[in-house]
Specification:
The protein has an 8-stranded antiparallel β-barrel with strand order 3-4-5-6-7-8-9-10. About 5% of the residues have low confidence. By secondary structure, the chain is mostly beta strands. The N and C termini lie far apart (about 45 Å).
Length: about 140
């Protein structure tokens, strides 16, 4: 469901299918046809900075969920559990995003400039909860 109360437009899409990937495509087609304001995601500028290794390490949430951040050939990857690593691209010194899923990560520094925590943010996660966006904060382990 998507609603634009300020312009009087919106849609609800129900599918009888297990193909979850179809939902965004249907919503995008409706958005294009009816000229919704945010049809295309904003383009993110990818920047390269040295020292991607500074972000590498193990990050742990309060509930015990572990994220492994790795750098390989100047690229940053994040792995959770047995899932395959997901590549992230830098948009600023502390912000990264994934091209394949609507996920971004933001790193936090302490007063001395060391990376101490990471927040993972997923936008539009399929969920029965009213608020589908999800943020997970994890502290870096020494």
């Amino acid at each position: 469901m998507r609603v634009y109360a300020h312009i009087g437009k919106g849609a609800v899409v129900m599918l009888n299918s297990n193909e979850v990937e179809l939902m965004p495509e249907v919503m995008r087609a409706i958005a294009l046809e009816y000229d919704w304001p945010d049809v295309f995601a904003k383009e993110k500028t990818i920047i390269t900075l040295p020292k991607v290794d500074n972000y590498s390490g193990l990050y742990l949430t309060k509930s015990g969920l572990q994220f492994k951040v790795m750098s390989e050939d100047g690229n940053l990857f994040l792995q959770c559990g047995q899932q395959p690593p997901l590549q992230f691209f830098r948009t600023s010194e502390l912000e990264f995003f994934a091209k394949t899923v609507s996920t971004s990560i933001f790193f936090e520094k302490d007063d001395t400039g060391n990376i101490v925590a990471m927040t993972l943010s997923q936008v539009g996660v399929m969920s029965l909860r009213p608020q589908a966006d999800q943020k997970i904060r994890a502290k870096r382990q020494n």
